[in-house]
Each structure stands twice: as C-alpha cells, then as structure tokens.
Q: What sequence folds into this?
C-alpha cells in the first residue's frame, strides 16, 4: 500500500513475456473488468447518479434551499416545507463545518506526532524500538467501533476517569469570540460543553485514534532508507538540530509527508464507526458521514447521496494526488539511479 | 553506528513526545477496555459471550468475513495477475481505482451499495440476469437448466439485508488489500524463471502452479488475512445495507453499539475484547508469515 516505486521496466518485460493461452488471457481480462466494474465503478458512478437524481437544482437545494419568491403568499404546508428544508440544509452545513474543524485539529497533531515518531524510530537505535513501531501501527488493526468504545470506557459515565471527565466544563474552543469576532461562518457552533464523550472533543480524540499511524507510517520507510549521513554532515558543519531538520530532513521527506497527510485527512473526513459511537447521535455532533446516515434513515435518499458525493469527490481527489505522488517519487527514483 | 547516532540530537524530545502521545491517545484508552472487561467475573464474561444474540452476531461476522476474504482471494489474485501481465484498454485507470475502497468513506460505500441492490437499482436485477445467463448457456449446451430461478436472489433487495449484502460490501472494503500485496511480488518477478521452466517442457498451468504460485503465496495469504481482519471490524458500510435484525443480520460491531446504547458498558467491553483479540491474532499470523518469507528469501 505504501508508495513503493514500481519497477516499470520489469513490468513491461513481464507483459511481453505473457505468451500464455489467448483464451485464458481473454477470460481473465473479462473477469477483471467485470469484477472491478461491478464492485468499484458501479458504486462510484451511482453516487453521482443518485445525487443528481433531481437535477442540478435538486443537488444545490440540499445546500441552499429555495427561498420563496418576493411577495408571494404561501400556504401553511408550503411554509412548513420551506422551513423544514432550511433546517435540513443548516444541519448539513453544521456537519460540514464540524468535519472541517475536526480535521483541522486532528491532521496537524498527527503531523507533529508522525514527524517525531519517525525521527525517533529511524534515526536512532534503542531497545524496544521494534515494539514501539508495532504499537504505532496498532490502531490500524482495531475495529472503528472498538476505537470509539475505548474512549467511552475511559471518559464516559461509569468510565475509568468518568467521574472527573463528566463534570468537566469547557467553552467551545473553535468559537471565534476568542479572537474578538462574533461567531459566523465557518466556525459558528457556539456552545459550552460538559463532559467529553458526546462532544466534539471526543470526536477529535476518536479521529486521532483511527488516523494515528498514517503520517508516521508513510515517513518511516523513507527515513529509514535515507539513513543519517546527510544529517551527520550538516551537524558536523555546525548546523543546529532544528536547522538540520528543516534544511536536510524535511526537503528529503516532503513527498512522503504529503502522502501521509492526504491519507490522514481523507480518513479524518470519512471516519464513521468510531465517531458514531462517541457522538451520541446528537444532531450538533454530526460530521458528514453521520449526517449521511441520518438522511438515509429519514428516507431522504437524494440529500444523503448529495452529501456523499462531496466525500466521494474528496476520495477521487485523494486517489489522484496519491497516484501523482507515486509517479513523481518513481520518476525521481529513476533519475537518481540514472545519475549514479 | 551507535556512536554516530548519538551525535544526532532530539532523541529525548521526539521519543518522549511519541511515547506521551501514544500512551495518552492509544494505550490508555485500550487499557480502559481491558480494565472494564477484566472487572467482569469469569462466569459473567462467559454468559455475555455465549448469549445467543452475541454468538449469532459473531458467527455472522465470521462467516461473512470468511466468504468475502475467499472471494477476494480468488478475484484479487486474478485482478493483480491481469493488471501486471496483460495490456488492455484503460488498464491504468482500473489499476488506479483499486485503491478506491481505501479512500472512500465507509458510510458512502454502504450507502451506494444499499442503493445499487434496490429493486430499481443498477444491480438489483443482476442476480436474476446471471442466473438466466448461466441457464441459457447450459441450455444451448444441452444441459437443461442447472440453476433454480431464485438461486442468486440473495443479490436482490430485501435479501441483501442478510448475509449476501453484507458479504458484498465486505468484498468491496477488502479488495485492495489482496491486490496491493500480490501486485508488487508479480511486478518484481523475473520472467527468466518462466522461460527456463518452459524450456524444460513445463506447460503454462504447471509453470503457474509450481514456479509462480509458491513465490506469491506468502504475499497472497497475508493480503487475504488483512482483508479478513478489516472485514471483521467493519461497521460503517455494513449497517447501511444490513437489515440489522438481532441474531440474523446484526454483525458483532453493531452488538457493541447496541450494548452501549443500553448503557451495558461491561458487556460492550467484553465483545470489544473478543473482536480485538481476533484482530491481533490475525496480525500475529501476518507477522509470522512475513518473517517466514524473509527468512526463506535470505536462505535462497
């Protein structure tokens, strides 16, 4: 899964060497195309087909509900419908804001951690290093539901630190009143919180848990293979540790770092299980995936797919960026080998 | 080497921060899980895990994950092989979208699959078409109609709310694991070995069975194990498509959520520990396989 540079020359050789039975080849190609079309292409295209089931107007109405024409007299039912549509779209916006805010906290924290962890585990040798590396990967093998559950058991009512955590009162850290603004888009969920579970703080924690290994894992193989020679050279010339890091290590690993950040962001936006468990199904705690579930349960098919289409576009972007980075690293690798 | 490493600064800072962050956000919460489950007495724990609804959900999770992993084992191998060995239109596109299940949020996957298999969904009639197609083919070959008309009805709503639908989404989430572990091994493979085998008189099937397959076996098994482990813990996509009827179409992670909604924390913890143990066992198998194949490589 890591962006290992593909040995394209040997791949070409392999394809040329494939002189097997043409019937077998045709059958396998047909099976591959059929399988991938049903299992990957169909669901992907279906998201957009369903999202645009009511046309572009229907799609946009999920975010910007139609307002009544100026001076029109509306019946009670029409007024109610408009008010309902306004409430629904506000809930969707609130989910989008919360998703962005959570990712804005989670991703930088995981970048700092990933850099620190990769530095400690690749530039040094110490006892327990292998154990530390496997512990960093641990969240990948934990079910998302269990990832949410552990925080409820730690900080929820009856939790290990439940007495302390449930009486914790804290103001909304995302509120713009801290910087002198009255609240407004995009960060206007003004609340004061009690407790940790069923608040955005728990959503942040659960999201950190499930996205924990991405940055560290994409950096480690590269930093391991680059060794310490360049850093030692810089240090011996009198550069400080920070300067060595910024001028030597950071440029060397920037693409791997970007790769990890993209994967981490995609997962932070899309996490469902862990976030669902700690959100308490409260509307103001909805992130975009949770909002999709609520719309689906309310039989609001087209709106659910509209929100889903935004996340799907992000996923497509993630894949494009990932492929671009892989090609770039493979090319850099090839150029570096050509020079030698 | 160790003298050199000491020249590089930052070990106390980075290691300290790593340990702090890891402990606070991963190890401490996991310890809470162990503690909560440990507070139950042995018989109590046994009663929770042998509750018919819980055993049924664990059985369903296992059965569906196993079927999905086996389907992925076969098709993942075919897809990886085809992508590496053959050229066909849009090969690069198909190669790139293999990672789509990694990038797509699970809720979106569940939503779109649940919709695809509705009666008027794109795949709602696919089971019937496949059955009819196989029967028509058999008929022209003079074999009668081997499949009853409803043989693949598990691919149609409302039957997709049961095991069939769950298996389909688990195939989706597990597919890239198999393809992406087998693919690099096939890419690295030196075709000289095949030429050698062919010159010794082996046919294609024998070459695959005796020469290529042993080479990709460890990667293939660990890919399938990863797909299985992912399927066991999967929640988001499954609850969209499954009917979620206790004892029939409720997966084990949903049992945890149900217990939490009833404030049965200890019971939820017990099921959580069971799931976590399974995942860690699979992980151990994978690690064992990897170190085995590394040792094997070094000997060769």
A:
């Amino acid at each position: 899964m890591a962006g290992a540079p593909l040995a394209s020359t040997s791949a070409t050789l392999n394809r040329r060497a494939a002189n097997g039975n043409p019937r077998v080849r045709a059958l396998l190609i047909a099976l591959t195309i059929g399988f991938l079309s049903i299992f990957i292409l169909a669901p992907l295209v279906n998201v957009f087909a369903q999202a645009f089931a009511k046309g572009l107007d229907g799609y946009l109405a999920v975010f910007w509900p139609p307002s009544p024409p100026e001076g029109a007299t509306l019946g009670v039912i029409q007024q109610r419908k408009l008010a309902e549509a306004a409430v629904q779209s506000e809930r969707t916006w609130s989910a989008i804001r919360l998703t962005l805010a959570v990712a804005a906290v989670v991703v930088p924290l995981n970048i700092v951690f990933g850099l620190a962890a990769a530095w400690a585990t690749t530039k040094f040798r110490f006892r327990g290093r292998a154990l530390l590396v496997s512990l960093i990967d641990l969240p990948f093998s934990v079910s998302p539901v269990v990832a949410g559950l552990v925080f409820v058991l730690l900080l929820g009512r009856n939790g290990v630190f439940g007495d302390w955590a449930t009486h914790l009162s804290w103001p909304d850290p995302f509120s713009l009143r801290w910087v002198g603004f009255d609240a407004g888009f995009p960060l206007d969920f003004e609340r004061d919180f009690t407790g940790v579970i069923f608040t955005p703080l728990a959503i942040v924690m659960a999201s950190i848990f499930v996205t924990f290994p991405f940055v560290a894992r994409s950096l480690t193989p590269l930093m391991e293979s680059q060794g310490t020679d360049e850093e030692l050279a810089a240090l011996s010339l009198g550069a400080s540790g920070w300067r060595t890091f910024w001028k030597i290590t950071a440029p060397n690993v920037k693409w791997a770092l970007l790769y990890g950040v993209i994967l981490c962001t995609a997962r932070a936006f899309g996490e469902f299980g862990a976030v669902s468990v700690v959100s308490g199904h409260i509307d103001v705690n909805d992130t975009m995936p949770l909002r999709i579930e609520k719309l689906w349960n309310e039989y609001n098919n087209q709106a659910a797919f509209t929100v889903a289409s935004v996340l799907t576009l992000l996923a497509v972007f993630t894949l494009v960026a990932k492929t671009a980075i892989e090609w770039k690293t493979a090319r850099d690798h090839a150029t570096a080998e050509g020079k030698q | 080497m160790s003298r050199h490493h000491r020249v590089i600064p930052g070990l106390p800072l980075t290691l300290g921060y790593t340990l702090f962050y890891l402990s606070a956000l991963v190890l401490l919460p996991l310890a809470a899980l162990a503690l909560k489950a440990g507070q139950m007495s042995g018989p109590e724990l046994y009663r929770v895990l042998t509750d018919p609804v819980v055993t049924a959900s664990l059985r369903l999770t296992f059965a569906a994950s196993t079927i999905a992993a086996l389907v992925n084992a076969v098709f993942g191998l075919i897809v990886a092989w085809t992508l590496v060995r053959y050229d066909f239109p849009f090969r690069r596109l198909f190669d790139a979208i293999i990672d789509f299940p990694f990038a797509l949020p699970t809720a979106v996957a569940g939503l779109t699959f649940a919709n695809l298999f509705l009666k008027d969904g794109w795949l709602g009639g696919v089971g019937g078409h496949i059955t009819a197609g196989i029967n028509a083919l058999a008929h022209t070959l003079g074999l009668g109609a081997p499949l009853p008309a409803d043989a693949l009805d598990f691919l149609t709503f409302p039957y997709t709310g049961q095991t069939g639908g769950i298996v389909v989404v688990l195939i989706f989430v597990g597919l890239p694991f198999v393809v992406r572990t087998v693919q690099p091994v096939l890419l690295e493979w030196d075709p000289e070995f095949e030429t050698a085998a062919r010159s010794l008189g082996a046919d294609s099937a024998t070459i695959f069975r005796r020469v290529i397959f042993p080479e990709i076996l460890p990667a293939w098994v660990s890919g399938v194990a990863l797909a299985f482990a992912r399927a066991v813990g999967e929640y988001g996509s499954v609850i969209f498509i499954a009917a979620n009827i206790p004892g029939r179409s409720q997966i084990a992670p949903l049992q945890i959520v149900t217990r939490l909604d009833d404030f049965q924390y200890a019971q939820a913890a017990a099921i959580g520990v069971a799931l976590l143990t399974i995942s860690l066992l699979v992980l151990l198998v994978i690690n064992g396989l990897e170190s085995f194949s590394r040792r094997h490589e070094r000997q060769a």
